[in-house]
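Hey,
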Amino acid sequence: MKLHTAGEDYLEAVLILQKKLGMVRSVDVARYMEVSKPSVCYAVGTLREGGFLTTDENHYLHLTDLGQEVAEKIYERHCFLTKQLRQIEMYFKTRGLFYDRRKNFYKNQGKRPNEIVSIGFLGQCLMSLFMGKPNYARARPSTLLSNDDSYKKLYVDNADLELFYRSASLGKKVEHFIKSSNEYSQAAKSDILFYTLYAVVALAVHSADITPTAFKELDLSVIDDAKISEAARMVFDVYTKLGGSNKVAKGNDLLEGIRTCINNYESPMCQMQR
């Protein structure tokens, strides 16, 4: 049985509470996670069916060997994640960006939206640039941190705070340009945002496959509004030809079309000079 993120959270809570209290009941989990008792009962039933835990005659919860193994891995991953998110937050803060690992923390402190980088936004930027999957960034942003393979590739194998900062900084620049543009509808702006980020960098490094090394060596000052506009128009043209819908943005055809354009791209300036 494959656990969803919510199931992982419940399993981890049982582990933490067992270490703290020794014996755990559903009411303890509900109090710890600040959720309703019916929600816990439903989760317990699902985890029990999956072989992750059992309950005794006194309604105490017990992790099975499988549940213990899975919960330990989840707990270890979350501890690592928490430490890394703190490091990212501190690094960004020294560079004028605010990494919102505690949701709305910096918004409540009065920081401007264009200075705040959410956990999800950074993940979407990294996914678009270094996995080459702006379609996944558009369609499935919430799966990133819960997917071990994706998380390892983006946050462990490339654990470079400067890389994270550059990705977020350029992502916010592209976001500001797209949101401020009068050329696109609100729906189109959401659909093309991460494709535009991907495309503008791919064009700058002259490759549809962006590597962390190539991105770090790139002078980001050359990516001005004119370059972003050029990339956005290219993305929008392909997007429109395919139907210009949310479904198109979440599919594979748009990405393949953009990759083809990048590999064969000649800037409008070059075309005018012919």
